[in-house]
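User: Show me sequence and structure for the first protein, then do the same for the second.

Assistant: Starting with the first protein.
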Amino acid sequence: MLYKHSNGNWYAEFLIGGKQVRRSTRTKNERIARKLYNSWKSEIEADGEITPFIAGEVAASVKPPATTHYRWDHAVVAYFGDPKVKAKRSIKSDLALAKALHPYLNGVALEDIDYTMLEGIQKVFIKRKLKDATVDQHLSFVRRVLRRVAKKERWITSVPAIPMLNSDNSIIRFLSKDEEARLYAALPDSLKAPFRIAILTGMRTQEIREMQWDWLDFENRHVTIPKAVSKTKTDMRKPLNQSVIDVLLTLRGNHPQYVISYRGKRWKDSFSTHAWYAALREAGIEKFRFHDLRHTWASRLRQKGVPLDVLQELGGWKSPLMVQRYGHLEVEHLQNYAALLDEDPQSEAENVVYLNRGARRP
């Protein structure tokens, strides 16, 4: 890590043999200091003694030095050193966010991180044409890190207000039958099977990508998603309809272990490839993610009258709050209850309930 000392000189900091080592570059010129830092770092890495952190800085397991002047990089190290953080399923996402923020916050004192500074970073991300939700993810990560060091390390007394674009994640995007047909026709063959599996089962992207043949029970028509892959961290059994079984059977023989493969090799990457976005453009569909196929599946079931509690179980949602998003899509099952007031109309004046005990009858 390269940082500027209060005396104006630039200092290099490395992890060598499990210990932090600092060395002054003896210069106030950042360009020269950077060259020295990169040269030293290359020498240390060649000896196999340095453990890089995110962008090649310090190891995530190292506790920052005892000082009253903690910086953002110290906070990030402490954050990723937390056992709970290490166990997160979204750890890779957090690492990516930290890496993206590194050029803007590295070396910045925690007490100097305020709303104005974060708003400036927000504007930079907006100029880079990142989606509102993506910008908010970066700033939410800043909030998580600062909250942790405020609560557990007590390096700061309060967390500054975080500027957010308030992207609305409650909006559900799902395909119409016509859009589905257009998009399917535009997709390359490699994405057609994952597309059909997602829209017919509501399985998450990772579940489809990791799905193995021994998870499938064609006789009893279900797939068992192990807790190591399931987002709920429990084994989950999902029923299979005949349409998706037909799709799965066409994939037999492509790979001995994994259901989804590409040219004989396991599919390891996202389904949201350049080919996916090219197909969206060809089909004339905007702002649609592969994950939205799960929303399409859930929305269609709800529109067919599937109760929310059943939908929750089918989709593997832990919280009913997540399923409530689909509540407005189907109200026909409520009509019978509303119609109860029509069955025995009462219009006579004496059939009035006086809630106020002091009220006098006319």
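Switching to the second protein now.
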Amino acid sequence: MRTCRAAAGLLLLAACSRAPSPPAAGRAERPPDPRWARAHPGYVWQFPRDHAAHRAYRTEWWYLTGIVTAEDAPGRTFGYQLTIFRIGLRPERTALASAWGTDTVLLGHAAVTDVAGNEHRFADLLHREVPLLARFGAPGDPVLAWCRAPAGTDGTWSIVWNGSGFDVAAVDARTRLAFRLRTTASKPLVLHGDRGFSAKSRDAASASLYYSFTRLATEGTLSLDGRTFPVRGTSWMDKEFSTSSLGPDQVGWDWLALRLADGRDLMLYLLRRADGNADVARASLVSPEGAVRALAPGEWTLRATARWRVYPSRFRLDVPGEGIHVTVVPLVLDQENRGTLPRAPDYWEGAVHVEDGEGDVVGEGYVELTGYGRGNRPPV
């Protein structure tokens, strides 16, 4: 087991050209290989083709989160996460004359938060993209990403385009979690930033191509400790691909995806430097009908009002021009994803409620907090 973990760690380090900790002051990082494609404005989107992999870019992820309620157990609410990353090892195919030669690895994260049990469980895996272990579907293939479950678990993880949403599945014997869910879009997808071009630095040298489904009706099953619950709820799907999505002076981000009870949705993030200050702020507001508008930094403020360990644990969000004055509250304080792979960064990823000034719940969503604590800079 120790040998397998060490090999996985070497593979992960080879896949990521940036170290997981922030660079020393004044030290320039090695730029990505120029043969990788870079995100630029004016990308011509084609769906459903763009749900599939974009192998010209170094990094890509499919990310689904949701809050679901058990139909046969009143009061049982769960948050879930499934993220599959595609990480390019080299810009061209390997010359090795073998089906087991690869230029790509698949990294997977899955989590379940049991609100009533005040408990959070996390599983991760890393596979080479080779037969029987993992693959990313070509355009036109409904299977967008697929892999074997973690070692010791019988099953698979997958994200499949079903024509109107995504079918997702994950299982892990070590943490005794599993889910199999079908999602259907309640709103059309939205492009963030400038028609999908999302600048991550002031000079736009670091950027991604980014879209979301902000509301996906969700149903299926979720299991903990062998007990299976039929569940229903709502999910959010993010897709980004890029070659450099963090600037060299940035250490992480605070990202929020919120669904308000009045039908509006909000995506917003702050990219932070090592001194804790944010140097880039981006936000999108989605109307009940699905129209998206980029919010200028001066239109909104986000302020942490409490902390849990190294992480912010509550946020005050104000968008005065839209009449939004709310507090974002975690459903469980400890929703930290602690990786099992060597040198894998830990991060907080959790289900939240949105409360108004009277303390009434007026929305729900997910928050992701990365780059907090030593050695936790995301390798992207």
